[in-house]
Amino acid sequence: MSRRKFLHLIAALLASTSVAPLTAAPAKRIIVVGAGIAGLTAAHTLRQQGHSVTVVEARDRLGGRLWTSKRWQHMPVDLGATWIHGAKDNPLSALADRIGAKRLITRYADTTTYNTAGKPLSNSESRQLEQWQARIDNALEAAQNADTDQSVQAAVEKALNWNNLKANERQLVQFILNSTLEQEYAGGSHELSAHWYDAAAAFKGDDALFPDGYQVIVDHLANGLNVQLQHVVQTVTWSEQQVTVQTNRGMFQADHAIITLPLGVLKSGQVTFSPPLPARKQQAINTLGMGTLNKCYLQFPSVFWPEDQDWLEHIPTEAGAWTEWVSLTRVAGWPVLLGFNAAERGKRIEQWTDPQIVADAMQTLRKLFGADIPAPLDYQITRWNTDPYARGAYSFNSVGSTLAMRDHLAESLGKTVLFAGEATERKHFSSVHGAYLSGLRAARQIDNP
């Protein structure tokens, strides 16, 4: 499991996660573009400092890539981000403590891995998998010390002499790359930078989820804010004196704007800036990757999988096909399985109908647990890549990118326009806590320019 195998190994813990208090400053007019975690955090913080804050959001709901569905009675599920990754010393844990938000812990130690035939791995198969994992780790360590960047896939294929591997050996390698990297970073192994794919810092501890969904955080941050929903931003016109944000429903003028658009939206060019963005900021937008991670929740009439396991892994014959599953039974008592599809396969199946996706998922589950398992009572499916207001799940470090590019993405336009969001975080990209920290950073920049 990626959080178990990788991020915990490369954790670069911050000495402190506390945020310096904002100093008093004259009240300013501020527009925040985007009501995701970064935008809401910045707006919440600035409103507390006495500023006049307006949030404009394209969607008809709050949260952005935080999206709690309450379609199933007594079983709210997160269609966007689910976990506080590394709950110990995580700033989101501190926030959750302050507002009394309940959390449940999932454990990577509670994992069962199934082979291509659908059987739990034997001891010898587990040892073999560990040996391939070690070879891949060595290949990537060597690639990170090389002068020239390359993709993770290219580095591994070269080191393992890919063309001479047997079919079953390739399946093991593909499983490891998908389960530990593609599912983690949302980019394809042929896109991930061998130099920088794992450059994110990590907090210690297991992962925590909210039994009431991440909506508890969204609701807290949004309380009392002036949020204008269904305002699709078209242009941002700025000078050293003011900024004007034009949406499909009106125009907003302010002293400052904080832009929290997802990297995928910035890449699309659907929002234009006048004057244009500086060259190195645009280069960062063009070069950094926006990944895909889609979810398929299946609710069943009864539990037919191991009730004491949180994670169920499958080594598929088709690379990346339903490799990772999460059971919500032990942790929440729900007869619900959550299956993931990442990177290229995650994009591809977005073109399928819901029944096709469910049928494909059930084909895997029947292989693991028998042909007579019950059909799901209901399902909930995401399509983040084709979502016009996200255009992906979260960012990753692609081949040719550098760590400095995230700093460039975070740079302000003069003192007027600031940028936040997980993609602007050098150390905590692709995480909710990264987006949260970026919102605090942007708010601090306005009150302490």
Report what the structure shows.
The protein has 14 helices and 22 strands. Helices cover 33% and strands 19% of the residues. It folds into two domains: 20-65 and 214-289 and 400-447, 3-Layer(bba) Sandwich (FAD/NAD(P)-binding domain); 77-210 and 290-381, Polyamine Oxidase, Chain A, domain 2 (Alpha-Beta Complex), CATH 3.90.660. The model is unreliable at 1-23 (pLDDT under 50). The chain has 449 residues and is of the alpha/beta class. β11 and β12 form a beta hairpin. Its EC number is 1.13.12.3. This is Tryptophan 2-monooxygenase. Pathway: Plant hormone metabolism; auxin biosynthesis. It comes from Thiothrix winogradskyi.
Compute the average pLDDT: 94
Proportion in β-strands: 15-25%
Determine the number of helices (DSSP H or I, runs of at least 4 residues).
14
Q: List low-pLDDT spans.
A: 1-23
Q: Based on helices, strands and strand pairing, what is the structural class?
A: alpha/beta
Shape, principal axes of CA atoms: globular
Could you tell me the number of beta strands? 22
Computed over alpha carbons, the radius of gyration is: 22 Å
* Overall number of structural domains: 2
- How far apart are the first and last residues' alpha carbons, in Å? 42 Å
Characterize the main sheet.
Answer: 6 strands, mixed
Q: Give the fraction of residues assigned to helices.
A: 25-40%
The CATH top-level class label of the largest domain: Alpha Beta
CATH architecture type of the largest domain: Alpha-Beta Complex
CATH fold label of the largest domain: Polyamine Oxidase, Chain A, domain 2
Give the strand line-up of the largest sheet: 7-17-18-19-16-20
InterPro entries: Amino_oxidase, FAD/NAD-bd_sf, Flavin_amine_oxidase, Flavin_monoamine_oxidase, TAT_signal
EC number: 1.13.12.3
Protein name: Tryptophan 2-monooxygenase
Pfam family, one: Amino_oxidase
